[in-house]
Design a protein that fits this description.
It is a single chain. With 98 residues, this protein is mostly helical. The protein has one domain. It is built from 2 helices and 2 strands. It has a two-stranded parallel ribbon. It is globular and about 45 Å long. It starts with 27 loop residues before the first helix and ends with a strand. 3% of the residues are buried.
């Protein structure tokens, strides 16, 4: 499972930019791309620690943001689907627990 940035995806990503992005209205393309930009920034900041843990504790080879996306790493969000149903634009590798 992965724990990348938690997006409170209760909406179409093109409607709003990432929470840490500019609040200036720059349109749907910017809004959508801001999520990829911040995923990349967060991965860049944490990849050394993640890969050190994978190697030293789990005995695994290093990974990358590209490999995780390519392999469709499962994601799990810890809230009940009774409270918030799974958004229709989420892929099959994203799950909600409750």
């Amino acid at each position: 499972m992965s724990s990348q940035s938690v997006y409170w995806l209760l909406f179409d990503l093109s409607q709003y930019p990432h929470a840490f992005a500019s609040s200036v209205e720059l349109g749907p393309l910017y809004n959508l791309s801001s999520y990829a930009l911040f995923d990349k920034a967060i991965w860049t900041a944490t990849s050394g620690q993640v890969n050190k843990f994978r190697k030293e504790v789990l005995g695994l080879k290093p990974t990358s943001l590209h490999k995780m996306s390519t392999l469709k790493t499962p994601f799990i969000y810890n809230f009940s689907p009774a409270l918030v149903p799974k958004p229709l634009d989420w892929h099959d590798n994203i799950f909600i627990s409750g």
